[in-house]
Amino acid sequence: MGRPLMSRKGDLAMLSYFVLHIPLTLLFDAQFLAPEFTRSHWPAFLLDAVQDYLRDSNDFLVKLQPVWFMSFLTCEMLFQLPLNLIMVHALATDAPHTRTTGIIYAVHTATTMVPILTEVFLGPGAAIVGQTQPQWLYMAAIYFIWLAVPLLILAAMLSRQPTHTTHKLKKE
Fold it and tell me: Residues near 35 by Cβ (< 8 Å), separated by ≥ 6?
């Protein structure tokens, strides 16, 4: 067991992010990947929350569902979600693998955000769905957060001392 969590303010902030990201992924992003299942199994307030987001943002990526975007949502479920769970445990216990796992998560997440933000800023989607400027700004801000936070996590993990395991070599 490592240092107490309350003495690691940065880890506490990252832990909060990962703890919040797990239900967001399961309860919101799942609605775009499995709409029939979630419509029949998710409570109305969760379905309404996504509809409110779509009304407020007119998110053309969610509305148009390009294959590449849906593949990123699938990666989020199959790769990022398990990493979120691992990071919750790693940060809570100050595990030796925290740095490596955090770097993997942050690089993967930030990399997936590059084409998403490129599409948001340069693609024709806003015009296709008739997105207003306030809707576009709201959508861009939401997506930008998912780039900014992983980059902060990456910086924190890169500045974290690597944990080395030392092995003594036997002299013959």
Answer: none
Lookup: tokens for 41: 């199994």
Cα–Cα dist 96/116, whole Å: 32
According to the model, what pLDDT value does residue 8 have? Answer: 86
Say how far apart CA 12 and CA 16 lie, in whole Å. Answer: 6
Mind listing the pLDDT tens digit for each residue in 135-151?
999 999 999 999 999 99
d(CA 145, CA 142): 5
Distance between CA atoms of 68 and 116, rounded to whole angstroms? 9
Cα angle for residues 5, 7, 8 (degrees, 5° grid): 65
Pull the structure tokens for residue 14.
């990252």
Look at residue 167 and give its three-state secondary structure.
Answer: coil
